[in-house]
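Thread title: Can someone regenerate the structure for this chain?

I was given the following input by a collaborator and told the matching structure tokens would be attached. They weren't. Posting the sequence so someone can regenerate them.
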Amino acid sequence: MSKARQPSLSQLRAFTAVAEQLHFREAAAEIGMSQPALSGAVAALEETLGVQLLERTTRRVLLSPAGERLAVRARAVLDAVGALLEEAEATRTPFTGTLRLGVIPTCAPYLLPTVLDLVHARYPRLDLRVHEEQTTSLLDGLAAGRLDLLLLAVPLGVPGVRELPLFDEDFVLVMERGHELADGAGIPRERLRDLPLLLLDEGHCLRDQALEVCREAGRPQSRETGGEVTTTAAGLSTLVQLVAGGLGVTLLPRTALRLETARNEHLATGHFADPAPGRRIALAMRTGTAREQEFTALADALREAMRPLPVRPLEVSAAA
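Best answer:
Regenerated them for you:
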């Protein structure tokens, strides 16, 4: 193929968007291009390559056999170009430009104030953009390049993802005021065997962590729920209101305790005996990212900034 007939990046972006959306209007909206311009770019790419990429009907768009194969190649080219631009930006000046941070819902309200204060004070030229999503969605976004860095519970055990642990924190038992365990200390985790347990909906890593604590405590399990759980909530705020209403007890990370329990005078807490169950929070990045040194330095700064929180910050050697 001569140089004059090489496809442009604009043509590849247009075709990739259509291949992913299978809809011209939605594809045009995704990449910020007018629909006529997008159609023209795809047609020009087909002419340049000499193959039909799409099968157009009056109702929908389908990929041709050649289109299915070349869509994978086109995405790889765009990803490689994105990585090139990312490396060039990181090389120029660290802690500048855009940083797309993904955060799980059970961390966002309680840790973001510390993160934002640090970024504003120490990295004023950094354009921080925050996305609150569940773990699976965050990992998909990191792999696709939609997100640069994640703040979430670990371990993940995901190939191609490097974890930078920040701190450990305990779980606290939250219950209705007047409960027999209210304000207790040294509660054995075995008490979780028969308490009515309330959990977050499926997809939240905190749900899985709480169920793991219950399994370790010897709580009876079922294939459907992981235990005798009949009531769930989409967020921690709703969860603690259900507890206050007498529907059961729940586990709350200590960083969430003050904010969530202060809203309702009908709540009480209890602390587990050592070693208390808990979770580890970390930053996660793509292995080999061009901004590895930058993100490692950010993790070091966050460990120090989070020392005033009710957590156990990890030393750099322990976090490595």
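The chain has eleven helices and twelve strands.
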